[in-house]
Each structure stands twice: as C-alpha cells, then as structure tokens.
Specification:
Layout: E1 3-7, E2 10-15, H1 17-24, E3 30-34, E4 40-41, H2 72-79, H3 84-97, H4 104-119, H5 125-134, H6 137-144, H7 149-158
Antiparallel strand pairs: 1-2, 1-3, 3-4
C-alpha cells in the first residue's frame, strides 16, 4: 500500500505509511491519504506506524487475519478445494481482480474521496465528479486542469484504473 501526504494543496511525500509519517509527523496541518482508498489516515502519535507492533497473520507478506462469514455449504465447498479455504479465496480474488474493469469502481471511489477531502470546494468539482463516474476521461482532465498541480497529479495517478 502506498500513501501520500499533503499540506494544503502541496504534495509532501509518498511511500509506505511509516515513510510518509516520518516526513510529516511534526507538521500539524499535514494530511496523509491512503492512495488505494482515498481516505485520510488518522495516526495516533503514541503508536506511530514504525513502532514495529504486528498483528496476527504474516506481516512480511502483508497478510492480515480477518473474519469471513459464509453459509455452511460455502465452507464445505471451500474445504474441499485444493489448498483449503484461504488458498481458494486468494485464487478467486486474484482471478476476479484481473478481469477488465474490475478495479474501475474502487479507483473511482478512491479518487472521489481524495478529491472531496482536498478539493471539494474547487471550481468545477461537481463537474469533475460527474465526469469521473461517467467514465469521461477527457472531460475529467479538462475540468481538473485548473486545480493545483500536485492535487491534479495525484488525481491523475489515482484515476489511471478508473478510465481503462
């Protein structure tokens, strides 16, 4: 996962959460955004991301344990698959994510969240969001052309999969 920090409309840093936090931890007005979701990341300074604390799972691989709720017949089917439930679910998710346009809705939502948080009152914001969700790449690009350079570049990066 990658993150981007902004101070106002100025891009400060990009990288892992620990890297970005290290750059902007003393800047009270900096915001860190998750590039995958577009959400602002709230960090408790008592537990910075580089503290080394790890949860369950395989942290070096980025694996985290979470709960999945399925019907008994789903669990039975998963248990009968080669590699078990976890391996089968990973294969299903990987196959689905490789289909053309599979990432389009998530990319649009992430760009929408980021744009709303940082440029919700920018000229042409509503037109840009309509173009984004309509899949009109050229119209979107034309509307955000007048926006601050760093914000525009971040949106262009985040919308790369939104207009495939």
């Amino acid at each position: 996962m990658t993150f981007a920090a902004f101070r106002g409309f100025d891009h400060i840093a990009s990288g892992s959460l620990a890297e970005v936090y290290a750059v902007c931890r003393d800047m009270g007005d900096a915001l860190i955004y998750d590039e995958q979701t577009g959400r602002v990341v709230d960090i408790d300074p008592r537990f910075p991301p580089d503290s080394g604390e790890r949860g369950p799972g395989r942290p070096k691989l980025g694996v985290a344990a979470r709960e999945v709720t399925l019907l008994p017949r789903h669990w039975d089917w998963l248990a009968a698959q080669p590699g078990g439930a976890s391996a089968t679910l990973r294969r299903l998710v990987e196959d689905a994510s490789k289909r053309p346009g599979a990432m389009r809705p998530a990319a649009r939502q992430a760009a929408y969240r980021f744009a709303t948080a940082i440029a919700g009152d920018a000229p042409g914001y509503e037109e840009a969001m309509r173009a984004l969700f309509a899949g009109h790449k050229d119209e979107f690009a034309a509307v955000i052309e007048a926006w601050p350079r760093d914000v525009r570049r971040q949106l262009e990066k985040m919308t790369a999969a939104a207009f495939d």
